[in-house]
Specification:
The complex is a heterodimer of chains A (about 270) and B (about 600). With about 270 residues, chain A is of the alpha+beta class. Chain A has ten helices and seven strands. Among the domains of chain B are: about 140 residues, Succinate dehydrogenase/fumarate reductase flavoprotein, catalytic domain (Flavocytochrome C3, Chain A, domain 1); about 110 residues, Methane Monooxygenase Hydroxylase, Chain G, domain 1. The chains are: A alpha+beta (about 270), B alpha/beta (about 600). The interface between A and B is large, with 60 and 67 residues.
């Protein structure tokens, strides 16, 4: 088999980045991450790349390959024309640390602002019952491996389109998994509207397209959440009905949570 | 080398090293006991190897088989471990696993459901009843995310992408750890009144492995260097079913749930070979014919009871791995050196629903549609039964102030681990170690003082590979180590090979001592590999020396020169590895802890 030609971004936040080219021997079934490992083992031992499971289960090896967001452990070289150079760059929505590694810590800060799972206090756990069909949607959200590719392609985050905070698709999926849990008691609609900035999503579905777990982020998570928020805050009849039933937006336990601050820090654009 | 006058130092009551399932569970429990907890991990939070666990978590909830009890789970664990497990650990594990699983549900885990709306359980090798609570074939992800979110909700301080290279000790035991930030390369120290090691296993020492780069035996080596004892190191679990093709994914795990749902193993001649490898003393527990095995699968998929017994593919992992290895060795393997595992006779919809990530994994990485044809599989290095010797109740190591839980600790699994028992292990003993560490911390008033001489030594060792003007590339040494361990200390072992392995390990260590890391300090994986490689060399030597000492075959340890179990000499004896005063490794044996009469009676007088 011919060699693959890779053009890999090198550099850190303090220096001007550059691309280095490598010729990598190809084996059948090889993925982009294998090629980077070969480079580490034979040509550039300090090439920085995150990875763990190498089985598309941990979401560590996110990067942009030929300009498209990918998990490198499941991006096969055979999907590319090996006559052409394959360009590998870090995710652009997050600040660069070094080479292909970016600072994704902002995402972990977002997670801290979401009201955690809140089961009922008046139903003993041995009486909890729910059917498989009632949780299939929640299980879909919980397939998320936190690769942050959806955050990377979300134009609100990537282009810093808003000064106000926006939690991004990953955390809308997480919030949906909590909101639609059969027995969760918390109400996150006010948070989603104000702090989470759900209104900034204008459903372009870029996140859904890149999800390696094939979660229908927009259709199954964000739109239903938008509907819930709209029902709570923009629909007077629904609001009155919930007041009568006692299930208004004030219900549910609330813990002291940090408030979501801003968007990912600005990043220096990688050179073209 | 940066001087240490302004060394970044953090102090906690309890420092947990490792943020997989065991570390997270320990941190949560220590926090619940009122301790101030710091949690350090080499990767980002939520990426640890626990996400790779697929099939389920074993707990005698009795939702599918009401006759299942802790007593049966205890017996299965002891039998599966060839009576070499710590009986008290097996007892605590079997008794407490159901509560630990229910606790996850209370923290938001969403397990698959039974028809009456409770947590569903599936069958697995060596478990007498359907016992594994699961979420399709991504149970580990569900567990780590649940624990991660719980830790976040409790406000536990997490130090991500931080490698601990050395424990700092004093006359009263361990006092803290020294390490560095992956992102900057800057040194950092942690002072703690108690430390829990939860760093996972050792599989990266082998060429074909299901383990990630993190599994370099860090905790085992840190503890050994600090004076702790390691036990059972010869028992390395080779999972029967890893992918064998294409080369880039060789070793990648194929969950036992494939067999749990009815997957059939066949050799290249089409023979269902597991029939002939069932051990005689266990044969009565398995089906006698294809027809009986098929009835069992049908009953399983339709959720009704049956008198049919389980298929032979659900024998214990050590046995199935040896069977596959033997079939291939004797020329009945597939083109790529594996055997066939077939689930495609079930409806495609069932396969996709029960095994969604296997379906994706084969489709995307091997161009195989497992609903239409068989997978090719072979053994892959998967799990370390051995590890740090700990007390059953507390996870306390033999070094004061130092605790261990999860795969890094030893004792529960004996000579062979049952599938599903690792996830329950990390919950039960993670919680116990976290509680014990918190208690220990509360008994100490002042934060311990970190000896500057040790810190200076650790700082010098950290910088040395970068400052050497020349030296060998760590990746080359790692490749040689992995190739050698695979060839000489693999599934079948023989004395001459083990002697040769020990000799070669000494040579590899000489090469490692003058290794050179190129590049700078910021996020340099080659530099990080230097420390991991040192740990891999230590645990590899412990594996090879323990394997040479045990002149019998038992569980996952198979000696071609001693093919039978030698109960007269070795029954009830664990291998022990310690660091001698002169720094060399010494290996000996110690009797198993005594078993209570109650537990002995549960084993039916077998042992």
């Amino acid at each position: 088999m011919p060699d693959a030609h890779l053009r890999v971004f090198r550099g850190d936040s303090s220096t001007e980045g550059r691309f280095e080219e490598f010729d990598v021997p190809v084996e059948e079934g090889m993925v982009v991450l294998d090629a980077l490992h070969w480079i580490q083992g034979h040509a550039a031992p300090d090439l920085a790349v995150r990875w763990n499971c190498k089985a598309a289960k941990c979401g560590s090896c996110s990067a942009e390959v030929d300009g498209r967001p990918h998990l490198m452990c499941k991006t096969r070289l055979s999907d590319f024309d090996l006559e052409q150079t394959i360009t590998v760059e870090p995710m652009r929505a997050f600040p660069l640390i070094r080479d292909l590694v970016t600072d994704v810590s902002w995402n972990y800060e977002v997670n801290k602002t979401i009201q955690p799972f809140t089961p009922p206090t008046d139903v003993p756990q041995e009486d909890w019952r729910w059917q498989q069909e009632d949780i299939e949607r929640v299980q879909e959200y919980r397939k998320c491996i936190e690769c942050f590719l959806c955050q990377d392609v979300c134009h609100v985050l990537r282009n810093h389109e808003t000064e106000r905070p926006f939690m991004g698709p990953r955390y809308l999926v997480r919030a949906a998994g909590l909101e639609m849990h059969p027995i969760d008691q918390a109400d996150r609609r006010e948070y989603l509207k104000d702090s989470g900035g759900i209104g900034f999503c204008n459903i372009t579905k870029c996140c859904t397209e890149v999800c390696p777990e094939h979660i229908k982020i927009t259709d199954n998570a964000i739109i239903p959440l938008k509907e819930r928020v709209a029902d709570a805050y923009y629909d007077p009849i629904g609001w009155a009905w919930r007041k009568l039933r006692g299930g208004d937006a004030e219900s549910g336990a609330r813990a002291e949570l940090p408030v979501l601050q801003g968007n990912p820090p600005q990043t220096d654009e990688a050179p073209d | 080398m940066p001087d240490l006058t302004n060394l970044e130092t953090h102090a906690h009551d309890v420092l947990v090293i490792g943020a997989g399932g065991a570390g997270l569970r320990a941190a949560i429990e220590a926090k619940a006991f009122g301790a101030d907890v710091g949690l350090v991990c080499k990767s980002l939070l939520g990426k640890a190897h626990t996400v790779m666990a697929e099939g389920g978590v074993a707990a005698a909830l009795g939702h599918v088989a009401p006759e299942d009890t802790w007593q049966v789970h205890f017996r299965d664990t002891m039998v599966g471990g060839k009576y070499l497990g710590n009986p008290r650990m097996a007892e605590l594990h079997a008794k407490e696993a159901p509560d630990r699983v229910r606790e996850l549900e209370a923290w938001g885990a969403v397990f698959d459901r039974t028809p009456d709306g409770r947590i569903l359980q599936r069958p697995f090798g060596g478990h007498s009843y359907s016992r594994l609570a699961h979420v399709g074939d991504r149970t580990g992800l569900e567990m780590i995310r649940t624990l991660q979110d719980r830790a976040v909700a409790l406000g536990i301080q997490v130090y991500m992408e931080c490698t601990i290279t050395q424990l700092i000790s004093g006359a009263d035991g361990v006092r803290g750890g020294f390490g560095y930030w992956r992102t900057t390369g800057r040194p950092v120290a942690f002072a703690a009144k108690a430390i829990v090691l939860a760093t996972g296993g050792t599989g990266r020492a082998y060429e074909v492995t299901s383990n990630s780069w993190e599994y370099s035996g860090d905790g085992q080596a840190l503890a050994y260097e600090a004076g702790a004892e390691l036990i059972d190191m010869e028992f390395v679990q080779f999972h029967p079913t890893g992918m064998v093709w294409p080369p880039g994914v060789r070793g990648l795990l194929v969950t036992e749930a494939v067999r749990g749902e009815g997957g059939i193993l066949r050799n290249a001649k089409g023979e269902r070979f597991m029939w002939k490898y069932l051990p005689d003393e266990r044969r009565a527990e398995y089906a006698e014919t294809d027809e009986e095995a098929a009835r069992w699968v049908t009953a399983l998929s339709q959720g009704h009871e049956t008198d049919a017994r389980r298929p032979p593919e659900l024998s214990t992992r050590d046995n199935v791995a040896r069977a596959i290895y033997t079939e291939v060795k004797e020329g009945r393997g597939t083109q790529h050196g594996g055997v066939f595992l077939d689930i495609s006779y079930l409806p495609a919809e069932t396969v996709r629903r029960k095994l969604p990530s296997m379906y994706e994994q084969f489709k995307e990485l091997a161009d195989v549609d497992i609903t239409r044809g068989p997978m090719e599989v072979g053994p892959t290095t998967h799990y370390a039964m051995g590890g740090i010797r700990v007390g059953a109740e507390t996870g306390a190591t033999t070094v004061p102030g130092l605790f261990a839980a999860g795969e890094v600790a030893a004792g529960l699994h004996g000579a062979n681990r049952l599938g599903g028992n690792s996830l329950s292990d990390l919950l039960v003993f993670g919680a116990r170690a976290g509680a014990a560490a918190a208690r220990q911390a509360s008994s100490k008033d002042a934060q311990p003082y970190l000896d500057p001489v040790q810190l200076q030594g650790a700082n010098g060792a950290l910088a040395a590979p970068l400052e050497r003007p020349e030296g060998e590339d760590p990746y080359a040494i790692q490749r040689d180590l992995q190739e050698m361990m695979q060839r000489l200390v693999g599934i079948f072992r023989v004395e001459a090979d083990l002697d040769e392995a020990i000799r070669q390990l000494a040579e590899l260590r000489r090469r490692w001592q003058v290794v050179k890391a190129t590049g700078g300090r910021a996020y340099n994986p080659g530099w990080n590999l230097v420390f991991e490689l040192g740990n891999s060399l230590t645990v590899s030597e412990a594996i090879a020396r323990s394997a040479r000492q045990r002149t019998e075959s038992r569980g996952a340890h198979s000696r071609l020169d001693y093919p039978a179990s030698d109960d007269a000499t070795w029954n009830g004896l664990n291998s022990v590895v310690t660091r001698a005063a002169d720094g060399t490794m010494s290996v000996s044996a110690t009797p198993l802890p005594q078993m209570s009469d109650e537990l002995r009676s549960l084993l039916g007088g077998e042992h």
